[in-house]
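Please decode residue identities from the backbone states below.
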């Protein structure tokens, strides 16, 4: 396994790094053209299209793609339980501070004001595949709960034998998700937007995904069918550090973005070659601690 490369670049030598700078740019126009037929298929054919497209894109023939977290009897390691509940508490405190109160004033006999009302339903998308992000579940569901959203649904691609990762089930249960749909990709976003015989439609769709998920969200938002958080693109991070930086922390920050996807980009810019080598070593150690990261290298 080749180590993460170190490039030595002189000041002003833009050409030596232009390939890295442009690697993370993502034009969704081609992806949007690819997802439009998928979206129309789901709109017209409902559950039948979802089953067929899940077989085509995920390699799984789903029979029942709805799970009710509240009915699940889950057992997780104690360290998981502590970590999830601490994260839930922290996220809750932050978003509670964002809640807005109704404003009302009387001006010359006129009653004026601003009223904040929650949407009725939200779909939260959590990616599957090589990496899992239970934090996406917590950060998507908790603000919606605090805002008073009545119906919150989680969408995540089906694993082998239609399984849902335990971390997703547990996160969904402690946050109060109403339903989990084992659906991924553009077909999941279409199902969330239009609804089917089984899938309840949602007014908003939030959460990260691959370029086809992002394209489906952007397209459906553009035609006014759903609201979205943002048309997220590839993750990227640039860390500027000198010899005083902690290589363990730098490596952790690089990996936290790089593991989001194969089109992500993580760069350390430093004037200290020794630091670069130490960070390189720490990244290799991280691969040994979590071998699944090697798949994303």
């Amino acid at each position: 396994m080749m180590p993460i490369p170190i490039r030595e670049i002189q000041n002003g030598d833009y050409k030596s790094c232009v390939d890295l700078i442009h690697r993370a740019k993502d034009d969704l126009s081609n992806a949007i053209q690819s997802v439009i037929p998928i979206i129309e298929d789901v709109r017209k054919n409902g559950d039948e299209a979802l089953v067929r497209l899940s077989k085509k894109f995920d390699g799984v023939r789903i029979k029942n793609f709805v799970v009710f977290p509240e009915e699940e009897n889950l057992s997780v390691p104690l360290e998981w339980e502590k970590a999830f509940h601490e994260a839930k508490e922290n996220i809750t405190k932050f978003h509670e501070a964002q809640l807005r109160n109704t404003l009302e004033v009387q001006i010359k006999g006129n009653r004026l004001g601003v009223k904040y009302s929650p949407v009725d339903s939200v779909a939260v998308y959590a990616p599957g595949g090589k990496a899992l992000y239970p934090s996406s579940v917590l950060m998507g569901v908790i603000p919606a709960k605090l805002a008073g959203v009545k119906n919150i649904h989680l969408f995540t691609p089906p694993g082998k034998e239609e399984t849902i990762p335990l971390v997703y089930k547990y996160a969904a249960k402690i946050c109060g998700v109403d339903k989990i749909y084992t659906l991924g990709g553009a077909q999941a976003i279409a199902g969330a937007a239009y609804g089917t015989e089984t899938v309840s439609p949602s007014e908003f769709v939030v959460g990260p995904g691959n370029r086809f998920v992002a394209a489906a969200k952007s397209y459906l938002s553009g035609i006014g069918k759903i609201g979205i958080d943002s048309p997220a693109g590839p993750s990227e991070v640039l860390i500027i550090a000198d010899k005083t930086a902690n290589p363990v922390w730098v490596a952790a920050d690089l990996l936290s973005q790089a593991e989001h996807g194969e089109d992500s980009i993580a760069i350390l810019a430093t004037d200290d070659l020794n630091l670069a080598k130490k960070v390189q070593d720490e990244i290799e150690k991280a691969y040994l601690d979590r071998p699944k990261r090697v798949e994303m290298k």
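Observation: Residues 29-58 form the longest helix (30 residues).
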